[in-house]
Structure formats: structure tokens, C-alpha cells
Amino acid sequence: FYNCTGFSKLIINDSLHIIGDFAFYNCSGLKGSLEFPDSLKSIGGYAFYFCSGLTGDLTLPPSIKEANLGSSAFEGCTGFNGSLTLPDDLSVISSALFYDCSGFIGNLKIPNSIESIGSLAFGYCTGFDGSLELNNGLISIGIHAFVNCYNFDGDLNLPSSLTTIKSSAFYRCKGFSGSLAIPGSVSQIGVGAFYQCSGFDGNLSFGEGVT
């Protein structure tokens, strides 16, 4: 349904298992919520790229496991105006997965199974106005992962499992407050990782072992 702009609503039935790459690419006339059945196991790359008319919450079902979310699957879906809920069994948040999805509000909770957040995964998601909850098993935060997510509120707690914070990972994330502690497990902090993160009002500390 690539570039099919005439549809007004998308209804996905209960028996669907896979949505392939580019399946609804640039279907910009869609309206209303996007609801996935519990049978769904995989969403391909660019599947809903620039489907900008969708509104409400976005909940990805628990049936989507491992790394079965393609890059840029929801890039440019700027109409969502509710919460974002991710399934518990993912290990990777792929690159640009929610890039420029600026309407999400509330908290962003990264599930406990996630080990890696890809580059630009949440870039320009400016609507989040709650906390960013990073899990205790997270190992790597990619380039520009949270660039310009400037409405987060509260502390930024980096888990002790974290080893890599890549370039511009939190670029212009101005809403964080409190102290910032870099855990001793971190071996790399990339260029501009915390550039213009101007909200912190506590201490900056580095754990023993930071290289």
C-alpha cells in the first residue's frame, strides 16, 4: 500500500502475523488510532513511514519479540498524541524507529529486555513531558538517540550496565534536572553526548572505572 493516500482508517485483523517493509509507507491520509492485534510478531522497516494522520496512543503488542521492529518503522508519524508503550521482550530498539514522532506525551519507559537503543531512535520526539526510564540491562545508547527530546522532566538515571553513550545521544535534552552520575561501567562518551542539556541543577560525577 506504498503511497496509498486515499484511505481514511486502517483496521488490522486478529490473524495478521507480519507487516512487511514499506507496507504503508507514506499513507498520509489515515485518521484515528492504530491498533495492533496480539497475533502480530513483526513490523518491517519503514512500514508506517510518514503516516502522519494517526492519533491517540501507540501500543506495540507483547507478541513482537526480539529485534522484530525494522528501522524507521514509525518515522515521521507526527499525529500520535498519547502515550507510547513498548513490548517487554525486545532486545534492540532499531535506528530511527520513532524519529520525528513529536506528539507522544507522558513518560517513556524502556523495557527491561532492551540492551541497545539505535541511532536517532527517538530523535525529535519533543512531546514527552514525563520521565525517561532507562532499564538496568541497557548497554548502549546510539548516536542522536534522543536528540532534541527537550521536554523530559526529572532526573536522568544511567544504569550501571551501560558501557557506551555515543555522539549527541542526549543533544539538547534540556528538561532533565538533578544530578548526573556517569556509571563506572561506561567506556565511551561520544562527542556532544550532553550538548546543551541545560536543566541539570545538581552534581556531575564519574564512577570509578570510566575510561
Q: Return the structural class.
A: mainly beta
Rounded to the nearest angstrom, the radius of gyration is 17 Å
Number of strands: 13
Low-confidence stretches: none
DSSP helix count? 0
| Average pLDDT number | 94
What's the helix-strand series?
EEEEEEEEEEEEE
Q: Biggest sheet, strands in spatial order?
A: 5-7-9-10-12
Salient structural properties:
211 residues; five-stranded parallel beta sheet; two-stranded parallel ribbon; 0% helix; elongated
What would you note in describing this structure?
The protein contains no helices and 13 strands. The strands form five sheets. Strands 5-7-9-10-12 form a five-stranded parallel β-sheet, with no helix packed on it. The protein has a two-stranded parallel sheet with strand order 1-2. Strands 3-4 form a two-stranded parallel sheet. The protein is mostly beta strands. It has strands spanning 18-19, 42-43, 58-59, 84-85, 92-93, 108-109, 116-117, 132-133, 140-141, 164-165, 180-182, 188-189, 204-206. The model has no long low-confidence stretch (mean pLDDT 94). Helices cover 0% and strands 13% of the residues. It is elongated and about 55 Å long.
